[in-house]
Amino acid sequence: MHKRAFVCTVILIAALAAIPILKKNQVTVEPKDTIINLTIDVIPGADVGSGSRENWLRERAEAFEAENAGVFITVRSLKSDQAQLLYTQDLRDQMGNIAAYTSGTFCDDAVFVTLDNGTKSQLYMCAGYVLLINPALCEKQGETYHIPSVAASDAQFDCGSILAAQCFSGTDTVIHTGKRSDMIALFQNEEISAIIASNFVAYRFCRMADQDKGFAVEMLPLSSCFTDQGHYVSVVDQSEAENQAAKAFAAFLMEEESQSVCRDIGMFSVYQTEDYESGTILSSLWENTGQLRIAPPFNWQNTGELARQLAQRALAGEASSVNAINRLLASFN
Fold it and tell me: Above pLDDT 70, what percent of the chain?
């Protein structure tokens, strides 16, 4: 009798030892609910580098699935009008479990759950702005350049005009603002000497120069390191099992392995001590961007619109608007 009990105990210990230890972001799936299907909605935002956020997130989803049996993730790209319809109205049955979006996409955080970091949003990658110049059209004066003209976008999700007002109001630099595509065309056609460039724009022109399809460019830092190019994830409030799995994926995006490959699409890691390979476009961008102050989610849509209105007034010669812009952006420190 005692021998049989001893054998059973040994078998039980061996069975327990064979159970794999869950990694910190693995999801425990109950036997009665063995499948969890998640959807990630990628809300429009500029893609940079050599790939897209959609593909980058799809690769992270596949890695997460490999570590979490029974969890399956679909990555879905939404158009701007689709995103506005789904996420500004209570169409929860059509929303994804996770929204991946850029600063200024949402005004309302009501549909999202609080993540483990205590917020309803999590920054998982970012980009900045630099002054991209055509040296052939600029006059070098010692260690600095005289910039005759500069272009800046005034698009909804681009604070180029705000930075132009901060940096060039009151100078003799001629400032052009308008649609992003029009401002890029001005720079590409060498009608202006500089452009306030996001990572996306800087990558485009640096690569063209490297391939002898354009002119030589140089990056210079701006006096402001404020950016609205923060990329966030939030979890849509649905079933408890889905919420837990989605929050685990949000945490997975913050792990070193995920963060180390942000550079693959020309984006900065949220770990701002990350080293970028010397001589690369991303390294040059980082060196000329400085310590980023990033527009927060949810309230930047309204605040950004106010800042753009102030920028228009500043560029029309109203000096007090520049001070108002500085105060507004400084509130995000």
Answer: 87
